[in-house]
Amino acid sequence: MYRTCAFCDAALRGDGGPSGLGVGQRVAFDEWRGRLWVVCPACARWNLAPLDERLERIEAVARAAREGRLLAASPQVALIRWQGYELVRVGQPPRVELAGWRYGERLRARERERAKVVVPLTLAAVGLGIAANVAVGGSFGVFIWNFGRVADAAYVALLGNRRVTLSEPLLCEACGSVMSLRARHLRDGRLTHEAHADLALLLRCPSCGGEAALLTGADAALALRRGLTFLNARRAARRWAETAAREVDRAGGPEGLIREASRGAATLDSLRPERRLALEIAVDELAEVQELERQWMDAEQIAQIADGMLTATPEVDDHLRRLKARRRADQPDG
Ligand SMILES: [Zn+2]
Ligand SMILES: [Zn+2]
After folding, report:
1. Which ligand has the minimum distance to the alpha carbon of residue 177?
2. Whether the Cβ atoms of residue 158 and residue 137 lie closer than 8 Å to each other
3. What is residue 202's predicted lDDT score, i.e. its pLDDT?
């Protein structure tokens, strides 16, 4: 196996783990077509493993994947964590899933982020609390408790103030002003159905309050993720994680849940907490697996040609030449 990415020359990093390839931290595989790739950490392109090294190694990766933890899945692509490695399983029929743990990873990351703000503020408040307590002779515990809540509110406000930067500036259709969007403005946003779009989000204008703009595609996903992260940040929301993950499953996966949520005319703020959290999970998962799916399509096209199953187009031919040149260069006596 080569040590650097055939597309960008970056080091592939990692030791390949269960693949036995000796390189790679994220490994993609397709048991049905007999494919194995190392995903580049720099450019995210998929580097196909040489044919002679593949078959028995795929078996080992598949075994690890069955023991691993599923992070996200579409019908075609599953992202699985096994020990320190990320395994991408492609081309396999239906996923098998358990609800609760799916959101666990993301929730822990969010807790760490919250701690960065809340803990220092609370510690500062404890110092103030002692001083104030001594000054007024009041109840120490009440101060600490109140300051903890203030720090928590500060964290939520911080998330709400995050700017939502779209691919191009947004003009309000009602008053014509340029909308400067913050995460908290998504409170009044609502999902809607729009032909030819996976995701369509109606926004209200922060200055005139009118129904101002319709976002679709990547812009809608970005705005929605910012808004939902803010709206779901309140501590109480966390107790809904398991119910929310189950709700995604019940809807038949992320796409089904988004479709369901687009049918009602409710604003994001007025959704049930577990439904709102389910929507955040769905949007996150969809973004991740759509990107993986896109990368897989590219990689599979190249793999088919590399294995002599198709006639090469000039563009893919060029990729292939580079792949082969690299492989030759990586074999000192070849
Ligand atoms: Zn690369
Ligand atoms: Zn306006």
Report:
1. 2
2. no
3. 94
